[in-house]
Amino acid sequence: MLSNIVQNHLDFIAFILALLAERFIPLISWYHPNTALNAVFSAIGKRIYKSKEPKSYQYLAAILASSLILSVILIIVVLLLEFAFYPELLAGLILYLCLESKSIDKKALRIAKLTKQNQKSTARELLKPLLAREVNRLSSPGIIKALIEIKPYFQKKWDVNIAKWDACQKYCNEQNMDFKVLTERELF
To answer: What does the alpha-carbon distance between residue 12 and residue 178 come to, in Å, rounded to a whole number?
Structure first.
């Protein structure tokens, strides 16, 4: 009976476990696959590319680096296909790896502090990877507006959100602007 219930709702259980794991057992950024692959590929690029070498060397180095990168990707794909026997667990693992709210929250707090200290260029550099837009010309209010987000009502009491909102409120007060926290209750 219990095994049938678990089997019928395994995808939902994997989803909930991935969310709980991300919230309470966050993956350290160095162990995140994206960070590790970025570090490896950057090191390969720095080690291989030498502008003073002849073109034939550069072509050979590019081919070998590309084959190394493709082999790493193929190994990852093969390992993921091994999980394909358990697609719910694979989906939970992918969800866990894709969720990274802790690092984004820390960056948002840092950006708010930098903006308050009038260090706009550093704040823009931290903001750049979080946005899919040009940030070089953003003013202080533009930087803060770029950090605006809508939170679920139950997250209104979380310390990290309260700290962000306090920093935003102080900044908005200094700039003669209104600041309001919106949740789904205010929107609907």
So the answer is: 40
Q: Against a cut of 0.85, is the pTM above it?
A: no
Tell which residue, 45, 101, 93, 99, has the closest CA to residue 69.
45
Report the distance separating Cα 116 and Cα 125, nearest Å: 15
3-state SS assignment for residue 5 = helix
Question: In angstroms, rounded to a whole number, what is the distance separating the alpha carbons of residues 94 and 4?
Answer: 25
What average pLDDT does the chain have? 77
- 178/165 Cα distance (integer angstroms): 12
Round to whole Å and give the CA distance between 51 and 125: 28
- Of 95, 77, 97, 91, the closest CA to residue 32 belongs to 97
Are 115 and 123 in contact by the 8 Å Cβ rule? The answer is yes
Instruction: Tell me the per-residue pLDDT of 104-162, one tens digit each, with 9 for 90 and over.
Output: 777 778 888 888 888 888 888 887 777 666 778 878 777 777 766 556 667 777 777 78
